[in-house]
């Protein structure tokens, strides 16, 4: 019984990025999560500063995140028969972090905390994969996003995929305090 109660209290962070706010998709996105039975326990609109945006990306994964993202980017360039514009995987990872933080802080966002059984997994399922082209119809990204990594790379920008959603319970537990004070959570 105690485990079931703990599971029903699982929380996750969702941030509607500037592209989602600009396209007036806030209501539709909130509706999708509400329809599953998740409980909205915090919500605010804000423009995160560049420092907060960098903290959001770096504080969660740190140097390991930088290296992993850089490795994936290097492999992606190789698969396309191209050479990375960066000398090392770490430089590539830092460039991605800076681009993501620049975009996240470029305009208003809506930060939310959702609570419920398997909240992290459920939100990720509804949201769809990070790469919009891999997101199936019926997911938020599959239904509302046309961007791709190829387009983002050619424009030298971060991918516009509408939403950030915590990837794991541990990640959510680290991210929520970056965006919300304890007294802001209902």
Question: Which terms summarize this structure?
Answer:
186 residues; globular; alpha+beta; 4-stranded antiparallel sheet
What can you see in these coordinates?
- With 186 residues, this protein is α+β, with helices and mostly antiparallel strands.
- It contains nine helices and four strands.
- It has helices spanning 2-8, 18-22, 26-34, 50-79, 89-104, 119-127, 140-144, 149-155, 169-179, and strands at residues 11-16, 39-46, 109-115, 163-165.
- A four-stranded antiparallel beta sheet has the order 2-3-1-4.
- Helix 4 packs antiparallel against helix 9 (169-179).
- The mean pLDDT is 92.
Element layout with pairings:
Blueprint: H1 2-8, E1 11-16, H2 18-22, H3 26-34, E2 39-46, H4 50-79, H5 89-104, E3 109-115, H6 119-127, H7 140-144, H8 149-155, E4 163-165, H9 169-179
Antiparallel strand pairs: 1-3, 1-4, 2-3
Helix pairs in contact: 4-5, 4-9
Mean pLDDT: 92
Task: Sum up the overall morphology in one term.
Answer: globular
Counted by DSSP, the helix tally is 9
**What composes the largest sheet?**
4 strands, antiparallel
Structural class: alpha+beta
Helix content: 40-55%
State the total count of DSSP E strands.
4
Q: Trace the largest sheet across and list its strands.
A: 2-3-1-4
Gyration radius (Cα, Å) is 17 Å
How far apart, in Å, are the first and last alpha carbons?
Answer: 23 Å
Per DSSP, what share of the residues sits in E-state strands of 2 or more residues? 5-15%
Low-confidence spans: none
Order of SSEs: HEHHEHHEHHHEH
């Amino acid at each position: 019984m105690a485990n079931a109660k703990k599971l029903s209290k699982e929380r996750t962070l969702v941030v509607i990025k500037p592209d989602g706010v600009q396209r007036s998709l806030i209501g539709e996105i909130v509706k999708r999560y509400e329809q599953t039975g998740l409980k909205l326990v915090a919500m605010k609109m804000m423009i995160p500063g560049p420092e907060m945006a960098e903290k959001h990306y770096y504080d969660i994964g740190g140097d390991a995140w930088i290296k992993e993202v850089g490795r994936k980017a290097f492999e992606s360039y190789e698969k396309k028969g191209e050479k990375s514009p960066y000398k090392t995987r770490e430089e590539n990872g830092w460039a991605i972090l800076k681009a993501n933080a620049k975009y996240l802080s470029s305009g208003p966002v809506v930060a939310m905390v959702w609570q419920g059984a398997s909240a992290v997994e459920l939100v990720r399922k509804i949201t769809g994969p990070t790469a919009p082209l891999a997101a199936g119809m019926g997911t938020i990204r599959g239904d509302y996003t046309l961007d791709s990594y190829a387009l983002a790379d050619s424009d030298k920008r971060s991918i516009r995929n509408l939403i950030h959603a915590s990837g794991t319970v541990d990640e959510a537990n680290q991210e929520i305090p970056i965006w919300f004070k304890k007294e802001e959570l209902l």
